[in-house]
């Protein structure tokens, strides 16, 4: 892999804008900066661009735009404001308003480019709250063929997670996060920007006036130092890949269970900014999810359970398995006996997990590794999983009783729009399907995440603030490198990317002032 993907020439000593990281926020900032005529450099530590954003579904929670209008949705900025007011705890109202105001402007600016087009993606929002749009308000970039983009992009685009983890190349049609990253990177290159992969940023320097002007990185040929005249945008993920930082900041889960690509997001760049005076706030924790334990010890993001039930190590259910994944993840994190959990399911889907796991893995390999167990009866299944057969049998019988009546008396599964979004088989309640058809299966689940979301404290313009609450001139941040505008909530599909893109674009607008 070439060290500088987009430029065969060495890096220049100076750019107008230097962007650290290459996820959805980073490349939105870079694309807008390059389009505005700024000399733009993207520094990415791995040989591939896109990070977790390239694994993503590409959904963007950007309310009140022309895309929702085109789709005829009952969405509006006012509705989104009401929704956030109901679901966020102690929000920074300036940042919330900045996000709401920027979403339509950003989408309009991006769609003005022939390389970008969005569409509505039906996907329920995560809370039953005022302002919620039925079937969701999130948008995604339209799929695009790889060969429609600059070939230099295709050469460095991180493949979807199931292919990346298996060492396989990406697909010829790019959809979701692949389309988002591919389209944005193509815009950067077309407008003269440089994307330098294999450049690990380790520090920042300030000039005599205190302005942050210098980025220090290690490239394939050793240390490099580049100056930025207009601004430096840090959008380099969270610290999900660092066991030490997770432990330091009290983040539940484990680095190996996180979804971030291996070798990407370890939070060093957040600490590098803190080392020159940036304030930090770790309280947002992460975007959590149940993670299917894999034979290699990793966890994989799982959502949309169609049947089956989750039990803890005592063999009892502890929540509504059909909750939005972040909310179920938080329930999972609430008690130690819930990790690992066992997800019990029957053979109605031929021994495959009745859910969307990214990736699921091979059931035979799971069975061989013991991450899944299988048996003809629930009692035998319990023994194979190390659970109490009497308790597990009672749990399954109780659950099957709920499936018969259509009412989950314990956790209310199937009462919310999200619960039934992926489900279809249950009757009288779509989300409640009896566990009836042997052989029976149990799969181990751990607490996974789609990234952490504590980090640099920023203002409504994406400016990084110091401990005194003043902007550090020249330094901006967005994405999971920042303390999330949503705090500990995950309002709906596309919240991570939507916020990252909005604040990256606000940062570039500020640099242009
Ligand atoms: P990333 O996208 O991970 O990018 C960070 C990049 O910075 C990485 O490439 C990394 O190598 C680089 N980097 C890190 N440190 C340095 C350094 N020191 N120097 C240089 N480069 C560095 N979210 C949504 O909003 N919508 C969805 O549809 C969605 N679907 C998802 C589906 C899956 C399967 C997964 C796993 C996640 C999904 N998410 C989704 C979550 C979302 O993808 C992430 O939370 C988000 O993309 C993180 O963006 P980021 O820019 O913070 O980090």
Automatic annotation (TrEMBL):
Superkingdom, taxonomy of origin: Bacteria
Cofactor (UniProt): FAD
UniProt cross-references to InterPro entries, sorted A to Z: FAD-dep_OxRdtase_2_FAD-bd (IPR003953), FAD-oxidoreductase_2 (IPR050315), FAD/NAD-bd_sf (IPR036188), Succ_DH/fumarate_Rdtase_cat_sf (IPR027477)
FAD-dependent oxidoreductase 2 FAD-binding domain boundaries: 16-497
Claim: Oxidoreductase is one of the keywords in the record: yes
Keywords assigned: FAD, Flavoprotein, Oxidoreductase
Family matches, as Pfam families: FAD_binding_2
Flavoprotein in keyword set: yes
Renumbered residue ranges of the record's region Disordered: 242-262
Name of this chain's protein: 3-oxosteroid 1-dehydrogenase
UniProt organism field: Nocardioides aromaticivorans
């Amino acid at each position: 892999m070439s060290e500088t993907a987009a430029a065969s020439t060495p890096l220049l000593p100076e750019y107008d804008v230097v962007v650290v990281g290459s996820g959805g926020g980073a490349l939105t900032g870079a694309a807008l900066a390059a389009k505005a005529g700024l000399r733009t450099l993207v520094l990415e530590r791995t040989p591939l661009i896109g990070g977790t954003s390239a694994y993503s579904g590409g959904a963007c929670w950007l309310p009140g735009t022309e895309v929702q209008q085109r789709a005829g949705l009952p969405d509006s900025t006012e509705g989104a404001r009401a929704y956030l007011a109901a679901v966020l705890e102690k929000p920074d109202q300036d940042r919330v308003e900045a996000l709401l105001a920027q979403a339509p402007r950003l989408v309009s600016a991006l769609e003005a480019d022939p390389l970008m087009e969005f569409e509505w993606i039906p996907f329920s929002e995560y809370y039953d709250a005022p302002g919620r749009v039925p079937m969701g308000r999130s948008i995604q970039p339209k799929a695009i063929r790889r060969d429609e983009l600059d070939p230099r992009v295709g050469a460095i685009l991180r493949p979807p997670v199931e292919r990346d983890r298996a060492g396989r190349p990406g697909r010829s049609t790019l959809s979701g996060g692949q389309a988002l990253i591919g389209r944005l990177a193509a815009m950067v290159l077309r407008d003269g920007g440089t994307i330098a992969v294999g450049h690990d940023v380790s520090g920042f320097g300030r000039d005599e006036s205190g302005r942050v002007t210098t980025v220090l990185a290690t490239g394939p040929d050793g240390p490099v130092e580049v100056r930025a005249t207009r601004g430096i945008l840090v959008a380099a993920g969270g610290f999900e890949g660092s066991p030490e930082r997770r432990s330091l900041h009290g983040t539940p889960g484990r680095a190996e269970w996180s979804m971030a690509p291996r070798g990407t997001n370890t939070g060093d760049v957040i600490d590098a900014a803190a080392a020159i005076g940036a304030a930090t706030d770790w309280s947002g924790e992460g975007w959590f999810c149940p993670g299917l334990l894999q034979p290699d010890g990793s966890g994989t993001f799982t959502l949309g359970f169609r049947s089956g039930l989750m039990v803890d190590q005592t063999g009892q259910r502890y929540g509504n398995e059909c909750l939005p994944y972040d909310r179920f993840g938080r329930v999972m994190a609430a008690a130690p006996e819930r990790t690992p959990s066992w997800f019990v399911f029957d053979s109605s889907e031929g021994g495959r997990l009745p859910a969307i796991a990214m990736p699921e893995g091979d059931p035979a390999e799971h069975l061989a590794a013991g991450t899944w167990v299988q048996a003809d009866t629930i009692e035998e299944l319990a023994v194979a999983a190390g659970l109490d057969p009497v308790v597990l049998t009672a749990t399954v019988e109780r659950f099957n009783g709920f499936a018969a009546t259509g009412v989950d008396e314990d956790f209310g599964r199937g009462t919310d729009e999200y619960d039934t979004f992926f489900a279809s088989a249950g009757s009288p309640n779509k989300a409640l399907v009896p566990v009836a058809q042997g052989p029976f299966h149990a799969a181990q689940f751990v607490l996974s995440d789609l990234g952490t979301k504590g980090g640099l404290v920023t203002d409504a313009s994406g400016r990084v603030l110091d401990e005194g609450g003043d902007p550090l001139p020249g330094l901006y941040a967005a994405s999971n490198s920042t303390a999330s505008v949503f705090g500990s909530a995950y309002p709906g599909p596309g919240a991570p990317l939507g916020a990252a893109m909005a604040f990256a674009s606000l940062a570039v607008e500020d640099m242009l002032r």
